[in-house]
Design brief:
alpha+beta, nine-stranded mixed β-sheet, binds zinc ion, three-stranded antiparallel β-sheet, 16 helices
């Protein structure tokens, strides 16, 4: 495939229109599996969290997990879906070593939630993403290929299977096709997954960690020339971060454009995203629904949620992230542009927690968007991992507000916090970093500065008060920034009047 010369992105979006679609799998944070009582915690010795049901042993019978059904209905409601008053599970038949029953219990033509939407912000514009369906299923086990260099099946000497994950409740959320977004397709995909993740987190139904696989995303992409029918789509799997979602769409657009330019047909297939190169590689050719021989699961009763219960769940939904952000923006008195920079920095929750810990929104924003964002960017980590907690930032700003630290000293104290030396007040005491405003202690430094700068002192005596600034600077220098500038200025003017 290396022979392909890729066109430029601008060139591609000028000549082609992308249509994207996203399928997201979410591991629910229930205590037990979807159809048995086995625990769901991450990790654990292989094959210790299993029972006859999730191992698919003959004669065992599944029972649906009520907490998982409830979580799915709440997700559907938060995504403005219609909740079915009657639906069934279905068997999806395929053979794979990590699937002990040789079928997966899923939902097919009778999903629990259908026809909703999620509004997302893309470069200041609201894009409404249609939600086709939200349905329940169970996760598979995990294959481990050992003895080879890559951990892949090629070159491995043995393959092992761990069934701890088999039967963990999964919810699949499928969007409708998203046309009409042109050059913004990659950003729209990322904005959707980000917003969806925030919604799921606000519902408390999953820990939504992409890197641990509790939120997994498949990205469908196709291209067509303006006025023509939609093109053949490919499905990119293994997209494990928000950034990768964006990169995967972009790279598929470039690859498909190069093929279409050369008159080659796009094959409907599954592709795998490569973290290292940012491009996609072919996987298996895509099965169609008929390959799976779906039929209603005979071992489970249909789900018929009581409308009164659904109404109760709807009434109890938490404030959704978008509404919550709008409320915060108003409370914090921020313009759209300022709020956007808070969002881009991933600082909304951190500022919210810092304000809750007792400081002003402006004080909190200053540290998170300034010094701490800079540090996070430098070390390539999320802002929350920059080395300070909201409580520490609130304490730091309180010390500034109380006049015990000036901005320069506060930055030195923050360095100590990031280095793990303790909380701001502790570091201030341990390093002797407080602002000195005691006139007795400052008089000597003031006299020294006047003696060392007779010319400047003379100007101040003649009434040129602006010249006093240079003397304040000299005192700040000898006190290593710890003098209270206001007190120093008063002392100088007193001495030279
Ligand atoms: Zn089990």
């Amino acid at each position: 495939m290396s022979a392909i010369v890729l066109p430029s992105y601008d060139d591609v979006v000028e000549r082609y229109e992308p249509v994207i679609g996203l399928e997201t799998h979410v591991e629910l944070g229930t205590n037990t599996k979807m159809f048995c009582g086995c625990p769901t915690d991450f990790g654990g010795e292989p094959n210790t969290r299993t029972c006859p049901v999730c191992l698919g042993l003959p004669g065992s019978l599944p029972v649906a997990n009520k907490a998982a059904i409830e979580a799915t209905i709440r997700i559907g409601l938060a995504l403005n879906c219609t909740i079915a008053d009657w639906c069934r599970f279905a068997r999806k038949n395929y053979f794979y070593p990590d699937m002990p029953k040789n079928f997966q219990i899923s939902q097919y033509d009778e999903p629990l939630c259908t026809d909703g939407y999620l509004d997302v912000e893309v470069q200041g514009k609201t894009v409404r993403i249609g939600i086709e369906r939200v349905h329940m299923e169970e996760d598979t086990g995990k294959s481990l290929h050992v003895g080879g260099a890559t951990g892949r099946i090629h070159g491995a000497t043995e393959s092992l299977v761990d069934y701890n994950r088999a039967g963990i409740p999964l919810v699949e959320i499928v969007t409708k096709p998203i046309p009409g977004i042109g050059a913004l397709a990659p950003e729209t995909a990322r904005a959707y997954v980000t917003e969806l993740r925030d919604v799921l987190r606000s519902l408390g139904v999953s820990d939504v960690r992409m890197e641990e696989g509790s939120l997994r995303c498949d990205v469908n992409t196709s291209l067509n020339r303006p006025g023509e029918e939609w093109g053949t789509r490919t499905e990119t799997k293994n997209v494990n971060s928000l950034r990768s979602v964006e990169r995967a769409v972009r790279s598929e657009m470039l690859r498909q454009a190069a093929l279409l330019d050369a008159g080659t047909k796009i094959i409907q297939e599954t592709r795998h995203f490569q973290e290292d190169t940012g491009d996609t590689r072919p996987g298996r050719s895509k099965e169609t629904a008929t390959d799976y021989r779906y039929f209603p699961e005979p071992d489970l009763v249909p789900i018929a949620p009581d409308p009164a219960w659904v109404a109760e769940l709807k009434a109890a939904l938490p404030e959704l992230p978008r509404i919550h952000r709008q409320r915060l923006q108003e409370q914090w008195g921020l313009s759209d542009l300022d709020m956007q920079s808070v969002l881009n920095a991933g600082a909304v929750e951190l500022i919210e927690q810092t304000v809750a810990a007792g400081t002003t929104p402006a004080g909190a924003r200053k540290w998170w968007l300034g010094e701490l964002s800079r540090r996070a960017n430098e070390s390539g980590v999320d802002l929350a991992q920059a080395g300070a907690t909201p409580a520490q930032v609130a304490e730091l700003q309180r010390l500034v507000d109380e006049g015990k630290l000036n901005d320069k000293l506060a930055r030195t104290v923050l360095e100590g916090v990031v280095a793990g030396e303790g909380d701001p007040a502790e570091i201030m005491a341990a390093r002797g970093l407080g602002v000195v405003s005691d006139t007795g202690a400052l008089t000597a430094a003031v006299d020294e500065a006047i003696a060392a700068n007779p010319d400047i002192a003379a100007k101040v005596r003649e009434g040129k008060l602006a010249a006093a600034g240079a003397l304040v600077g000299a005192v700040m220098k000898t006190t290593r920034g710890q003098a209270d500038a206001k007190t120093v200025r008063e002392l100088i003017l007193e001495r030279l009047s």
